[in-house]
Amino acid sequence: MEKTMRKRRQSKAPRLRIPPIEELYGDGVGGRLMRGQFSHRKDIHEAIQRRHEKGVGYIDEKGYWVDGDKRWKVPYGVRAAFRNQLSYSQIASQYPFYVQWQHPQRNGGPPRTLTRSCMTLGVACAFITKNLTTVDGDAFIVSKLGFHIPIPLMGKFPRKLSDGKTYYWCPRCMQPRRFRVPDPMNPTTFYADKKFWNEEKGHYEWKNVKLAYLACSHCGISNRDQKFRSANQPVEKVVIRPTRKRRRRR
């Protein structure tokens, strides 16, 4: 009688532990970049992405971040950014976001501009809701590396709003902003590609033109930024129709 060999159990690979924040970051000049031994681990990237998307659960149907009896209206661009995939640079940075606000002085002087670095968008929204709703109603969040414009808003900027002024989409503030010349006494220019409508061909064409150097009135990003250039260009809709295979007689 032949003896049947038992199948060996396949040993599962040991699951690596996700280290705490204190161990995860520490490289770079300021010690706020992800350590090299963790920078290419997929499980850590997925955990940070889940932490980023978790903040959507605190926003109600009307777009308010609710914290007890306090509420803060989250801008549409910030709400859309919660569903975006974080880039490698944003994952590798311990503080990819910060909150900026104007804090009044006790002696009646001009308000001071203060900032607070945040690990996630959710932390930034919670900080504004809890601490700044009564201090500065115009407090805002800045993404240090920026997000691309939400798809429903593509091709809609620059545009004039109800106040008659032209607004551009700011990829770092994640909302429409005014862009101005930083130093009117010494304006600078640069060359970049811009879309122009061609009446004869019936579509947009890229042209390399001379443009004025502009900067955001809030975060300071310039119109030379790649995400700004792509967000503030016209967009053509291309309808792709399903093709039919031609039937051949045999």
Task: Write structural notes for this entry.
The model has no long low-confidence stretch (mean pLDDT 90). The chain folds into two domains: 21-143, no CATH class; 153-231, no CATH class. The chain has six helices and 14 strands. With 250 residues, the protein is of the alpha+beta class. A hairpin with a 5-residue loop joins strand 8 and strand 9. The termini are far apart. The radius of gyration is 25 Å and the shape is globular. The chain has a three-stranded antiparallel sheet, with helices on one face.
Mean pLDDT: 90
Q: How many angstroms separate the termini?
A: 62 Å
Question: How many extended strands?
Answer: 14
Count of distinct structural domains: 2
In terms of DSSP E residues, the strand content is: 25-35%
The largest pleated sheet is described as:
3 strands, antiparallel
Query: What string, H for helix and E for strand, traces the elements in order?
Result: HEEHEEHHEEHEEEEEEEEH
Anisotropy-based shape: globular
Radius of gyration: 25 Å
| SS class | alpha+beta
Indicate the percent of residues in helices.
Answer: 10-25%
